[in-house]
Design a protein that fits this description.
The relative contact order is 0.12. This protein is elongated. It folds into two domains: 153 residues, no CATH class; 134 residues, no CATH class. The protein is α+β, with helices and mostly antiparallel strands. The chain has a four-stranded antiparallel sheet with strand order 1-2-3-4, with helices on both faces.
Length: 318
Protein backbone atom coordinates (compact mmCIF):
# COMPACT_ATOMS: atom_id res chain seq x y z
CA UNK A 1 0.00 0.00 0.00
CA UNK A 2 1.01 3.59 0.43
CA UNK A 3 4.09 3.09 2.04
CA UNK A 4 7.66 2.97 0.89
CA UNK A 5 11.20 2.56 2.15
CA UNK A 6 13.08 5.75 2.87
CA UNK A 7 16.28 6.84 1.25
CA UNK A 8 18.72 9.49 2.39
CA UNK A 9 17.62 12.70 0.64
CA UNK A 10 19.86 14.48 -1.80
CA UNK A 11 19.77 17.83 -3.54
CA UNK A 12 17.51 20.55 -2.19
CA UNK A 13 15.56 18.15 0.03
CA UNK A 14 18.73 17.30 1.96
CA UNK A 15 18.82 20.69 3.70
CA UNK A 16 17.59 21.07 7.24
CA UNK A 17 15.08 23.65 6.02
CA UNK A 18 13.46 21.09 3.73
CA UNK A 19 13.32 18.47 6.47
CA UNK A 20 12.41 20.59 9.44
CA UNK A 21 10.31 23.48 8.37
CA UNK A 22 10.49 25.66 5.33
CA UNK A 23 7.04 26.96 6.21
CA UNK A 24 6.28 28.33 2.77
CA UNK A 25 7.05 25.03 1.01
CA UNK A 26 5.37 22.81 3.57
CA UNK A 27 2.19 24.90 3.67
CA UNK A 28 1.93 24.88 -0.11
CA UNK A 29 2.30 21.11 -0.23
CA UNK A 30 0.01 20.13 2.63
CA UNK A 31 -2.27 17.18 1.90
CA UNK A 32 -5.95 18.18 1.44
CA UNK A 33 -7.96 17.49 4.58
CA UNK A 34 -11.46 16.97 3.16
CA UNK A 35 -12.94 14.88 0.38
CA UNK A 36 -13.88 17.94 -1.66
CA UNK A 37 -10.40 19.43 -1.39
CA UNK A 38 -8.79 16.13 -2.38
CA UNK A 39 -11.04 15.61 -5.42
CA UNK A 40 -10.66 19.18 -6.66
CA UNK A 41 -6.89 18.99 -6.27
CA UNK A 42 -6.63 15.66 -8.07
CA UNK A 43 -9.00 16.77 -10.83
CA UNK A 44 -6.88 19.82 -11.64
CA UNK A 45 -3.44 18.28 -11.14
CA UNK A 46 -0.78 19.05 -13.73
CA UNK A 47 2.84 17.99 -14.05
CA UNK A 48 4.13 20.70 -11.72
CA UNK A 49 1.55 19.81 -9.07
CA UNK A 50 2.56 16.15 -9.22
CA UNK A 51 6.21 17.08 -8.83
CA UNK A 52 5.28 19.12 -5.79
CA UNK A 53 3.35 16.16 -4.38
CA UNK A 54 6.43 13.96 -4.73
CA UNK A 55 8.52 16.56 -2.92
CA UNK A 56 5.92 16.85 -0.16
CA UNK A 57 5.78 13.09 0.32
CA UNK A 58 9.56 12.98 0.57
CA UNK A 59 9.52 15.66 3.26
CA UNK A 60 6.82 13.78 5.17
CA UNK A 61 8.69 10.47 4.88
CA UNK A 62 11.85 11.90 6.38
CA UNK A 63 9.90 13.48 9.18
CA UNK A 64 8.36 10.06 9.88
CA UNK A 65 11.85 8.53 9.77
CA UNK A 66 13.07 11.14 12.29
CA UNK A 67 10.23 10.25 14.64
CA UNK A 68 10.99 6.55 14.15
CA UNK A 69 14.64 7.10 15.05
CA UNK A 70 13.58 9.00 18.17
CA UNK A 71 11.36 6.08 19.20
CA UNK A 72 14.26 3.70 18.56
CA UNK A 73 16.54 5.73 20.83
CA UNK A 74 13.85 5.64 23.51
CA UNK A 75 13.53 1.86 23.11
CA UNK A 76 17.27 1.36 23.56
CA UNK A 77 17.17 3.57 26.66
CA UNK A 78 14.43 1.38 28.11
CA UNK A 79 16.49 -1.72 27.38
CA UNK A 80 19.46 -0.19 29.13
CA UNK A 81 17.33 0.72 32.14
CA UNK A 82 16.10 -2.87 32.35
CA UNK A 83 19.65 -4.16 32.18
CA UNK A 84 20.72 -1.90 35.03
CA UNK A 85 17.92 -3.25 37.20
CA UNK A 86 17.29 -6.95 36.65
CA UNK A 87 18.89 -7.75 33.28
CA UNK A 88 17.06 -8.90 30.14
CA UNK A 89 15.58 -12.40 29.97
CA UNK A 90 16.93 -14.67 27.25
CA UNK A 91 13.79 -14.46 25.11
CA UNK A 92 13.95 -10.65 25.10
CA UNK A 93 17.55 -10.77 23.89
CA UNK A 94 16.51 -13.20 21.17
CA UNK A 95 13.71 -10.89 20.03
CA UNK A 96 16.13 -7.97 19.94
CA UNK A 97 18.59 -9.95 17.81
CA UNK A 98 15.88 -10.93 15.34
CA UNK A 99 14.57 -7.37 15.16
CA UNK A 100 17.99 -5.96 14.36
CA UNK A 101 18.77 -8.59 11.70
CA UNK A 102 15.46 -7.96 9.91
CA UNK A 103 15.97 -4.20 10.04
CA UNK A 104 19.48 -4.50 8.59
CA UNK A 105 18.24 -6.52 5.62
CA UNK A 106 15.30 -4.16 5.12
CA UNK A 107 17.65 -1.18 4.93
CA UNK A 108 19.97 -3.01 2.53
CA UNK A 109 17.05 -3.89 0.27
CA UNK A 110 16.02 -0.23 -0.03
CA UNK A 111 19.08 0.36 -2.20
CA UNK A 112 18.86 -2.68 -4.47
CA UNK A 113 15.14 -3.57 -4.47
CA UNK A 114 13.11 -0.35 -4.45
CA UNK A 115 9.31 -0.70 -4.36
CA UNK A 116 9.56 -4.34 -3.34
CA UNK A 117 8.88 -5.93 0.02
CA UNK A 118 12.31 -7.32 1.07
CA UNK A 119 10.61 -10.35 2.62
CA UNK A 120 8.52 -11.30 -0.41
CA UNK A 121 8.95 -15.00 -1.14
CA UNK A 122 9.97 -14.17 -4.73
CA UNK A 123 13.04 -12.33 -3.42
CA UNK A 124 14.59 -15.02 -1.24
CA UNK A 125 17.49 -15.40 -3.63
CA UNK A 126 18.45 -11.79 -2.91
CA UNK A 127 19.50 -12.62 0.65
CA UNK A 128 19.73 -16.44 0.73
CA UNK A 129 23.39 -16.62 -0.16
CA UNK A 130 26.58 -16.64 1.88
CA UNK A 131 27.88 -13.23 0.81
CA UNK A 132 24.68 -11.37 1.69
CA UNK A 133 24.20 -13.22 5.00
CA UNK A 134 27.81 -12.50 5.94
CA UNK A 135 27.27 -8.81 5.14
CA UNK A 136 24.14 -8.71 7.30
CA UNK A 137 25.91 -10.38 10.23
CA UNK A 138 28.95 -8.10 9.87
CA UNK A 139 26.74 -5.01 10.07
CA UNK A 140 24.85 -6.46 13.02
CA UNK A 141 28.11 -6.97 14.89
CA UNK A 142 28.87 -3.27 14.51
CA UNK A 143 25.75 -2.34 16.49
CA UNK A 144 26.31 -0.21 19.57
CA UNK A 145 23.79 -2.38 21.42
CA UNK A 146 26.14 -5.39 21.43
CA UNK A 147 28.23 -4.02 24.26
CA UNK A 148 25.16 -2.87 26.19
CA UNK A 149 23.03 -6.03 26.03
CA UNK A 150 24.75 -9.15 27.39
CA UNK A 151 24.30 -12.18 25.15
CA UNK A 152 23.28 -10.20 22.06
CA UNK A 153 26.59 -10.60 20.24
CA UNK A 154 26.44 -14.39 20.65
CA UNK A 155 23.21 -14.45 18.63
CA UNK A 156 24.51 -12.45 15.68
CA UNK A 157 25.48 -15.45 13.56
CA UNK A 158 24.87 -16.57 9.98
CA UNK A 159 22.60 -19.35 11.23
CA UNK A 160 20.48 -16.90 13.23
CA UNK A 161 20.25 -14.54 10.24
CA UNK A 162 19.08 -17.33 7.93
CA UNK A 163 16.49 -18.51 10.44
CA UNK A 164 15.22 -15.00 11.16
CA UNK A 165 14.82 -13.88 7.55
CA UNK A 166 13.34 -17.22 6.50
CA UNK A 167 10.79 -17.10 9.32
CA UNK A 168 9.73 -13.57 8.35
CA UNK A 169 9.29 -14.62 4.71
CA UNK A 170 7.01 -17.48 5.81
CA UNK A 171 5.04 -15.25 8.18
CA UNK A 172 4.36 -12.59 5.56
CA UNK A 173 3.49 -15.21 2.94
CA UNK A 174 0.79 -16.53 5.30
CA UNK A 175 -0.55 -13.02 5.85
CA UNK A 176 -0.64 -12.27 2.12
CA UNK A 177 -2.37 -15.61 1.41
CA UNK A 178 -5.30 -14.71 3.67
CA UNK A 179 -8.25 -14.00 1.36
CA UNK A 180 -10.49 -12.45 4.03
CA UNK A 181 -11.53 -8.88 3.27
CA UNK A 182 -14.10 -6.61 4.91
CA UNK A 183 -16.17 -4.02 3.05
CA UNK A 184 -18.25 -1.26 4.58
CA UNK A 185 -19.85 2.00 3.53
CA UNK A 186 -19.12 4.90 5.86
CA UNK A 187 -19.17 8.69 5.95
CA UNK A 188 -16.13 10.79 5.11
CA UNK A 189 -15.18 13.87 7.14
CA UNK A 190 -17.42 16.11 5.03
CA UNK A 191 -20.38 13.74 4.97
CA UNK A 192 -19.84 11.95 1.66
CA UNK A 193 -20.49 8.21 1.54
CA UNK A 194 -17.31 6.23 0.88
CA UNK A 195 -16.57 2.51 0.62
CA UNK A 196 -13.85 1.09 2.88
CA UNK A 197 -12.13 -2.20 2.06
CA UNK A 198 -9.87 -3.79 4.68
CA UNK A 199 -7.64 -6.88 4.62
CA UNK A 200 -8.18 -8.85 7.82
CA UNK A 201 -4.71 -10.26 8.55
CA UNK A 202 -2.62 -7.21 7.68
CA UNK A 203 -5.06 -4.44 8.58
CA UNK A 204 -4.28 -2.67 5.29
CA UNK A 205 -7.27 -0.68 4.09
CA UNK A 206 -8.40 1.98 1.64
CA UNK A 207 -11.29 4.39 1.09
CA UNK A 208 -12.96 4.47 -2.32
CA UNK A 209 -14.57 7.84 -2.95
CA UNK A 210 -17.21 7.98 -5.70
CA UNK A 211 -17.90 10.80 -8.12
CA UNK A 212 -18.80 14.21 -6.71
CA UNK A 213 -20.12 17.46 -8.10
CA UNK A 214 -16.52 18.58 -8.62
CA UNK A 215 -15.33 15.46 -10.45
CA UNK A 216 -16.81 12.67 -12.55
CA UNK A 217 -14.01 10.33 -11.47
CA UNK A 218 -13.53 8.29 -8.33
CA UNK A 219 -10.53 8.68 -6.05
CA UNK A 220 -8.79 6.40 -3.57
CA UNK A 221 -7.35 7.24 -0.18
CA UNK A 222 -5.12 4.42 1.05
CA UNK A 223 -3.33 5.67 4.16
CA UNK A 224 -4.33 2.93 6.68
CA UNK A 225 -3.12 4.95 9.66
CA UNK A 226 -5.66 7.68 8.78
CA UNK A 227 -8.61 5.37 8.09
CA UNK A 228 -10.64 3.95 10.97
CA UNK A 229 -10.57 0.15 11.13
CA UNK A 230 -13.81 -1.61 10.19
CA UNK A 231 -12.66 -4.88 11.81
CA UNK A 232 -14.49 -5.25 15.13
CA UNK A 233 -11.80 -7.67 16.31
CA UNK A 234 -8.95 -5.30 15.46
CA UNK A 235 -9.70 -1.63 16.02
CA UNK A 236 -6.07 -0.49 15.98
CA UNK A 237 -4.64 2.15 13.65
CA UNK A 238 -2.34 -0.32 11.87
CA UNK A 239 1.00 0.98 13.23
CA UNK A 240 3.08 -1.66 11.41
CA UNK A 241 1.32 -1.30 8.05
CA UNK A 242 4.59 -0.72 6.19
CA UNK A 243 5.65 -4.31 6.92
CA UNK A 244 2.86 -5.60 4.67
CA UNK A 245 3.16 -3.38 1.60
CA UNK A 246 4.55 -4.87 -1.59
CA UNK A 247 2.97 -8.31 -1.05
CA UNK A 248 0.05 -7.95 -3.48
CA UNK A 249 -2.51 -7.13 -0.78
CA UNK A 250 -3.00 -3.58 -2.02
CA UNK A 251 -3.82 -4.79 -5.53
CA UNK A 252 -6.55 -7.04 -4.15
CA UNK A 253 -7.96 -4.17 -2.08
CA UNK A 254 -8.10 -1.89 -5.14
CA UNK A 255 -9.84 -4.54 -7.22
CA UNK A 256 -12.48 -5.17 -4.55
CA UNK A 257 -13.13 -1.46 -4.06
CA UNK A 258 -13.56 -0.93 -7.80
CA UNK A 259 -15.86 -3.96 -7.97
CA UNK A 260 -18.15 -2.32 -5.40
CA UNK A 261 -18.36 0.77 -7.64
CA UNK A 262 -18.37 -0.77 -11.14
CA UNK A 263 -19.33 2.36 -13.09
CA UNK A 264 -16.49 4.49 -11.75
CA UNK A 265 -13.23 5.32 -13.51
CA UNK A 266 -10.29 5.90 -11.19
CA UNK A 267 -8.05 8.90 -11.68
CA UNK A 268 -4.55 8.98 -10.22
CA UNK A 269 -3.96 11.02 -7.08
CA UNK A 270 -1.33 11.35 -4.38
CA UNK A 271 0.72 8.21 -5.08
CA UNK A 272 3.62 6.59 -3.28
CA UNK A 273 6.10 4.25 -4.93
CA UNK A 274 4.04 1.25 -3.85
CA UNK A 275 0.64 2.58 -4.89
CA UNK A 276 2.19 3.63 -8.22
CA UNK A 277 3.19 -0.01 -8.79
CA UNK A 278 -0.38 -1.12 -8.02
CA UNK A 279 -1.74 1.47 -10.44
CA UNK A 280 0.58 0.37 -13.23
CA UNK A 281 -0.57 -3.24 -12.82
CA UNK A 282 -4.27 -2.34 -12.79
CA UNK A 283 -3.85 0.08 -15.72
CA UNK A 284 -2.31 -2.73 -17.74
CA UNK A 285 -5.33 -4.93 -16.92
CA UNK A 286 -7.92 -2.24 -17.72
CA UNK A 287 -6.45 1.01 -19.07
CA UNK A 288 -9.85 2.66 -19.46
CA UNK A 289 -10.87 2.16 -15.83
CA UNK A 290 -7.50 2.86 -14.16
CA UNK A 291 -5.30 5.87 -14.83
CA UNK A 292 -1.56 5.97 -14.27
CA UNK A 293 1.04 8.69 -14.69
CA UNK A 294 3.71 6.75 -16.54
CA UNK A 295 2.16 4.63 -19.30
CA UNK A 296 4.37 4.85 -22.39
CA UNK A 297 1.66 3.37 -24.64
CA UNK A 298 -0.87 6.01 -23.61
CA UNK A 299 1.61 8.82 -24.11
CA UNK A 300 2.46 7.57 -27.59
CA UNK A 301 -0.99 6.52 -28.83
CA UNK A 302 -3.76 8.50 -27.15
CA UNK A 303 -4.76 11.56 -29.14
CA UNK A 304 -6.41 13.08 -26.07
CA UNK A 305 -6.12 13.01 -22.30
CA UNK A 306 -7.01 9.82 -20.39
CA UNK A 307 -9.89 11.72 -18.74
CA UNK A 308 -11.83 12.11 -21.99
CA UNK A 309 -10.66 8.97 -23.81
CA UNK A 310 -13.25 6.37 -24.84
CA UNK A 311 -12.91 2.59 -24.36
CA UNK A 312 -12.18 2.16 -28.07
CA UNK A 313 -9.20 4.51 -27.75
CA UNK A 314 -7.39 1.83 -25.75
CA UNK A 315 -7.68 -0.90 -28.39
CA UNK A 316 -4.28 -2.53 -28.76
CA UNK A 317 -3.10 -1.25 -25.39
CA UNK A 318 -0.12 -3.16 -24.10
Amino acid sequence: MDAEPMRQPSGPLASSDALHGDDQVVRSLERPKTLTERVVRWATADTQAREHEVAARTVRRYRIRARSEARERARVSRLQATLLSDGLPADAVMLEARKQLKEIWRNMAIQSLPNRNPFHSDLEAAWKNKNKIDAIVAEARESKDLAQIPGLSDLMTAEMAMQTLGAEVCRLAQVAADDRFLTKESDDVDGATVTVVQHVSSGLRAQFIPCTEESSFGSIFSKPYNIASIDLDNKGNCPDWEVYVGLGIGTSIYRLGAKALPEIRWRTGDLTEFSSAVRRKLHHEDPYKWATYDCCWCKANLSQQWDVALPADFDGHS
